[in-house]
Every structure is written in structure tokens, then in C-alpha cells.
């Protein structure tokens, strides 16, 4: 990747990044069209390849940029001492929704890339996919399952939530209020799963306050905007 990309105005960088994430998120690596990307970004194909060299170079850059941006936001939203599974998941959701204010397709792009089957693309980002998975595992390592009913399994609940969130995200991307609608629906899934999997006493003790605000614009965004310096 040509480092001079970061010399472009931020607005132009983001147009290229968002257009690229959208194409790869919905079509996957093989079927993502660079013609669609340059059209949506309002740039020439020559300019795109000047900065990224190839479609694969663009894909590698996007995964690196997106995963770092995501983790920076996660670091600012997730309490290091938190142990409640559902509170941690809500904090991760809040971070993800904050990210979508700048890059609406970023979470869906990462999710699709993590499951990419095209060999060249999967190999190119393979080490980053493993690193991101480990970072996510560490985000959840303090979750102790306290208050869970004996038959409730955190791993299975996580997989169910991930699937539900993926569908909610895809649906939200068709709406104007993407972060707000996505957060609202996913928060409902979290509350429902808590009610189904925890004892009543645990629900009362650990459930986030009902009037807790949704995703906010805050200083973490300013920090995240400097990710190109990482």
C-alpha cells in the first residue's frame, strides 16, 4: 500500500474505504467489483490502483485498517474489570455501533472476511484474522457466567448472538439510521437472552439500567481517527 494514501484529505480516504468495505462486505472477495468501488468512491480506477497496487492489496489494507479501528474503539468502551457476560457483550455492541458512525460497513466487512473462502484472499489476511479472533477472545476472558442457569452455555449463547447480530446488521444497512436501529435491535436480543439464560436474581443484579444511553459521540472517535498513524 502506498503510504501517500494518508496524505489525501480524510473525506476522500473515507469515501474510498467505505466504498471498498461495502463491495467486499456484500459480494465477498471474488465478486467484489473495483468498477463499483471507484464509482461509489468517486475516484478513477487508476487512482485506486496507484495507492493499493491491486485488488488484493486493497483487501489486505482494509482488513488491517478495519481491525485496528475496531479494537481501538473496543478498548475505550469495554471495562477491564467487568465480569458480567451480557454487560461485556453490550459494551462490545456499543463499540461496534460507534464504529459504524464513521464506517457503516466495517463490522460486516470484517465478519465476511473472517469467513472468506477464496484461497488467495483468505491467505493474505489469515494472520490478521487469527490475531483479531484472539483479541475478541481476550475481551471475553473475564466473563464468569455467574448467575447462569446450569443448562445455559456461554459459547452457544455467543454463537446465537453473533448470528442474530449479523442478520440485524444486514437489515440495518438498508435503513437511514444505521447505528441507532442496529443497537436497538441487538440490545433487545441481549435482554431476551439474559432473561432466558440467567436466574432471576442475576437478572436483577447484572442487567444494565434500562435508561442507559445508546451509542454516543465521544472522544474515542477522535482517537480512532488517528489510526492511520498506527
Structure description:
It contains eleven helices and no strands. The longest helix has 23 residues, at 55-77. The protein has 230 residues and is an all-alpha fold. Mean pLDDT is 86; it is low at 206-213 and 216-230. The two termini are 14 Å apart. It has a single domain, classed as Tetracycline Repressor, domain 2 (Orthogonal Bundle), CATH 1.10.357.
Query: What's the level 1 CATH class?
Result: Mainly Alpha
Output the CATH topology.
Answer: Tetracycline Repressor, domain 2
Tally of separate helices: 11
Q: What's the end-to-end separation, in Å?
A: 14 Å
Helix proportion = over 70%
Task: Briefly say what this structure is.
The protein is an all-alpha fold and 230 residues long. It has 11 helices and no strands.
Can you lay out the helices and strands and say which pair or pack?
Blueprint: H1 10-31, H2 34-41, H3 45-52, H4 55-77, H5 85-102, H6 106-114, H7 119-139, H8 154-172, H9 178-197, H10 200-206, H11 219-224
Summarize this structure as a short list of keywords or feature phrases:
mainly alpha; single chain; 230 residues; 0% strand; Tetracycline Repressor, domain 2
Amino acid at each position: 500500500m502506498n503510504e501517500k494514501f494518508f496524505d489525501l484529505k480524510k473525506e476522500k480516504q473515507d469515501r474510498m474505504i467505505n466504498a471498498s468495505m461495502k463491495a467486499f462486505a456484500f459480494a465477498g472477495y471474488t465478486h467484489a467489483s473495483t468498477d463499483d468501488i471507484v464509482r461509489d468512491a468517486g475516484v478513477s480506477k487508476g487512482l485506486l490502483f496507484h495507492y493499493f497496487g491491486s485488488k488484493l492489496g486493497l483487501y489486505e489494507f482494509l482488513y488491517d485498517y478495519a481491525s485496528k479501528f475496531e479494537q481501538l474503539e473496543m478498548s475505550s468502551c469495554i471495562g477491564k474489570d467487568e465480569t458480567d457476560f451480557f454487560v461485556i457483550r453490550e459494551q462490545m455492541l456499543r463499540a461496534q455501533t460507534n464504529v459504524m458512525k464513521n464506517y457503516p460497513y466495517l463490522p460486516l466487512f470484517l465478519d465476511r472476511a473472517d469467513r472468506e473462502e477464496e484461497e488467495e484472499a483468505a491467505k493474505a489476511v489469515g494472520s490478521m484474522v487469527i490475531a483479531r479472533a484472539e483479541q475478541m477472545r481476550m475481551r471475553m476472558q473475564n466473563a464468569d457466567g455467574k448467575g447462569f442457569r446450569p443448562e445455559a452455555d456461554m459459547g452457544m449463547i455467543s454463537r446465537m448472538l453473533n448470528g442474530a447480530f449479523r442478520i440485524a446488521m444486514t437489515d440495518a444497512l438498508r435503513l437511514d439510521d444505521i447505528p441507532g436501529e442496529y443497537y436497538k435491535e441487538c440490545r433487545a436480543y441481549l435482554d431476551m437472552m439474559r432473561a432466558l439464560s440467567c436466574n432471576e436474581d442475576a437478572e436483577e443484579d447484572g442487567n444494565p439500567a434500562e435508561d442507559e444511553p445508546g451509542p454516543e459521540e465521544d472522544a474515542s472517535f477522535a482517537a480512532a481517527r488517528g489510526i492511520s498513524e498506527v
